[in-house]
Amino acid sequence: MAGQRPLKPSILVRIQVGHQLKKYFLSTMPKTIYRYPQKSDAAQLLEFINTLSAEQTYIRMQGKVVTLEEEEKYLNDFLKNIKDKKAIKILAFDNEQLVGAADINMGFGAENHVGVFGITVAKSHRGQGIGSELMSKTIDAAKTNIPNLEIITLGVFADNTKAILLYQKYGFKQYGILPNGAVRRGIHSDHIQMYLEV
């Protein structure tokens, strides 16, 4: 992007499978650890996504059950994309329990400079700052480790006001609305599209 400052080599962070980013202490929990994923996370990721899907929270999966085979393939593909500098994924753990995940996955062809952002936090750990911390770490890691990244996009349910406020806090701007573009628990809502230039 025009006017973008080059990254100094001294601040580059090399991605390593399972690499721990930092310990982050919160008053409501003993500690939260943020790190990159590894193959052994498949079982926890499976339980995490199936729990969110059953809850029918603000995610695309609304009641679908993922198998371990599907989750292992998804994770292996994602790890390959991370290695190829086409993706970032950061997991949050509280006492070794997976409680949050965020990622950016790059497009291809004419959109290989655009990354799509996604984030989820376990119901038991919402409202404790984990979403904000995950978002900050994921965007910073993507800026450092994905050379093609120029724009980050995301979609959000129009009635998910807390998420919209968080995205705006990090500089995301709305660029479109798909009326009735999302369905949650059988109810249609507008799907808001947002973007951030990096």
Present the secondary structure layout:
Layout: E1 20-26, E2 29-35, H1 42-55, H2 68-83, E3 87-94, E4 97-106, E5 114-121, H3 130-145, E6 151-157, H4 161-169, E7 173-184, E8 187-197
Parallel strand pairs: 5-6
Antiparallel strand pairs: 1-2, 2-3, 3-4, 4-5, 6-8, 7-8
Helix pairs in contact: 1-2
Structure report:
The protein has 198 residues and is an alpha+beta fold. The protein has a domain of 129 residues: Gcn5-related N-acetyltransferase (GNAT) (Aminopeptidase), CATH 3.40.630.30. It is built from four helices and eight strands. An eight-stranded mixed sheet has the order 1-2-3-4-5-6-8-7, sandwiched between helices. β5, α3 and β6 form a beta-alpha-beta unit. α1 crosses α2. The longest helix is centred in the middle third of the chain and has 16 residues. It is globular. The N terminus is likely disordered.
Give the gist of this structure:
This protein has helices at residues 42-55, 68-83, 130-145, 161-169; strands spanning 20-26, 29-35, 87-94, 97-106, 114-121, 151-157, 173-184, 187-197.
